[in-house]
Write a structure and sequence with these properties.
The chain has about 220 residues and is α/β, with parallel strands linked by helices. It has seven helices and nine strands. It has a single domain, classed as Vaccinia Virus protein VP39 (Rossmann fold), CATH 3.40.50.150. The longest helix is centred in the middle third of the chain and has 13 residues. The chain is globular. The structure holds S-adenosylmethionine (SAM). S-adenosylmethionine binds next to helix 1, helix 2, strand 4 and helix 5.
Amino acid sequence: MGRMIKIGDIVLKIHPLVYEPAEDSILLMDNLVNVRGKKVLDMGTGTGIQAINAIKKGCDIAVGIDINPYAVELSKENAELNGLEVCKKVFFFQGDLFDGMDRVMEEVGIDRFDVILFNAPYLPTSQEERLGDYINYAFDGGVDGRRVLDRFISEVGRYLKEDGVIQIVQSSLTGERRTFDMLKKYGFKGEKTAVMRFFYEEIQVITAKRIQELF
Ligand SMILES: C[S@@+](CC[C@H](N)C(=O)[O-])C[C@H]1O[C@@H](n2cnc3c(N)ncnc32)[C@H](O)[C@@H]1O
């Protein structure tokens, strides 16, 4: 039996190769937009925490995606631990960002999401700092911290409804201005909607809406 933690009313099993929810996870949970009746995508689901939280806050359907197969299995277990039936309202799939998303949407039976969340791997990480296992995906944002985040922003619009909302968690080390510029390039206007300050960085929730339809 793995170690268990409790965050609010959510019980989670923890796995050594899956990101253990931390301040950034809680910041996103606590600042989630209204998801009641909405279809929510939780990119990089980890333990499944954001998808489970979205269901508990009344969303219609939540889909969690993670590149880490241990995360996908753990998320399913955690959803069940919290009384949710997997493949009814909450679904989990392995995937590299939006690769394979068309198949996922078909399987779940939806065409676009109302809300897309991503607590991204945002730490600037050099080759020498990389961890040699699946857990590396939780932290490694490439040398400037933006590798996964920029790819996410460039692809997310295709899967979001016209009036949909994106919520990203990142660090000030990743650069909020660069995130705003990247969002603008892909037709979104972002604003910082929550922060948590630490000695050397600020963890930020950036909430974005579409300013123009590019897809
Ligand atoms: C900082 S953790 C966040 C986990 C969880 N959402 C939370 O809030 O606690 C980032 C997650 O993104 C996943 N991830 C990293 N790169 C990915 C990619 N290219 N496609 C899908 N998931 C990815 C990692 O495996 C990890 O679970």
